[in-house]
Amino acid sequence: GQNIDQPTEMTATEGAIVQINCTYQTSGFNGLFWYQQHAGEAPTFLSYNVLDGLEEKGRFSSFLSRSKGYSYLLLKELQMKDSASYLCAVKNSNYQLIWGAGTKLIIKP
Amino acid sequence: EADIYQTPRYLVIGTGKKITLECSQTMGHDKMYWYQQDPGMELHLIHYSYGVNSTEKGDLSSESTVSRIRTEHFPLTLESARPSHTSQYLCASSPGQGESQPQHFGDGTRLSIL
After folding, report:
1. How far apart are CA B93 and CA B96, in angstroms?
2. Which of A49, A69, B2, B105 has the most CB within a 10 Å radius?
3. CA distance A101 to chain B (A)
4. Are B15 and B113 in contact (CB under 8 A)?
5. E-assigned strands of A3-92?
6. With an 8 Å Cβ cutoff, are B42 and A102 in contact?
7. pLDDT per position as a tens digit, A27-76
8. For chain A, how big is the Rg over CA atoms in Å?
């Protein structure tokens, strides 16, 4: 089967750095997406990785290792508004997105 | 900024009713999707379309149907609602070209079947 694994919940402190991990087992690989979803709202796109390495976008960075089936999302200088769920999704060989259940990130002052 | 709209935002309705959830996008995207999401759970694809008059079922059997008569419109219909249909329904769209293009989501419809 195909599955995406992420921690269910993480807690971090305002101003700190947090790393959210994602491991995947899918039938083929055509890219990995990270989305942010605030409670009761729609998911919004954060980043896309298809080649190994780090993609940096402001306070957010995303890393991919295809050989390990592993990605992480790194959030720096955490702000209270970063409290949300972070969803990892992998596009498989059929170009369908397989979604993880998301990691709920709680930011404390 | 993505322009994709879903109505209604919330719906509470009795068992056996026919329901249509509306989704429209103004970006001219060829691809559109319907997902079901329960709290704390992953998104499950229930239907998708790669263009007008093209619809496919996703990996979740949902007892619903869709139509794609116009590029911008992708409604989802439940012929006879049941309590097991209670969930959040998310509509998304993406451009036809380029696998790196992300999906843009509407705000969702939270459906409760009594």
Report:
1. 9
2. B105
3. 4
4. yes
5. 3-5, 9-13, 18-25, 32-37, 44-49, 53-57, 60-65, 70-75, 84-91
6. yes
7. 999 999 999 999 988 899 999 999 999 999 999 999 999 999 999 999 99
8. 13
Q: How many contacts does A have with B, using Cβ atoms within 8 A?
A: 45
Q: Please list the residues that pair with B7 across neighbouring strands.
A: B22
Contact B42 A101 (CB under 8 A): yes
Q: Which residue has the tokens 């990785």?
A: A49
Give the residue on B whose Cα is nearest the Cα of A45: B102
- Give contacts of A99 with chain B, Cβ < 8 Å: 42-44
Q: Does B109 touch chain A (CB under 8 A)?
A: no
- Please answer whether residues A77 and A15 qualify as being in contact, where contact means their C-beta atoms are separated by less than 8 angstroms: yes
State chain A's mean pLDDT as an integer.
95
